[in-house]
Amino acid sequence: MSQPIADAAMDTLFREARTYSAWQDRPVTDQTLRDLYDLLKWAPTSANAAPARFAFLRSTEAKERLRPALAPLNVEKTMSAPVTVIVAYDLKFYDQLPKLFPHSPGMKQLFESNPELVDATAKRNSSLQGAYLILAARARARLRTDVRFRSREGGRGVLRGRQALFWL
Predict the structure, then answer these.
(1) What is the per-residue pLDDT across 94-124, written as a single tens digit (0 to 9) for each?
(2) From CA 36, how far away is CA 109, in angstroms rounded?
(3) Which of 4, 38, 44, 87 is deepest in the core (most CB within 10 A)?
């Protein structure tokens, strides 16, 4: 990068970014979701691991399956959002490293032999990729985002389980 991005872009991405609790009454198209993913997939992760897996939910039935995992104050937001995104991670992400990180052929074996490294890398980098998705949405100025994290164990505030929920 030879030049900093414009101050207005910094405002959109960071300074004026807020948590929203209401949504615009318009659908989010499949193309919009593809565009966001096509942007975030280029962002860096450790060893190009890219462990995040995204599930974009639109139907009431799909969102209802999330209800038991939601904090009471997030139920209505989730049900009314045009799209709810589950950010999960693949613990076998290293199977893709020969393609994603070809200049280091031993990287796959490093992860295969170290489950603690796999777990830490998957959690940290899938969270990072979730954040990249939020930044991509803000950069596209199409979507408003609100983030809440819950672990499978029921903890809130940090990504300690295998999924994070956020709304687009």
Answers:
(1) 999 999 999 999 999 999 999 999 999 999 9
(2) 31
(3) 87
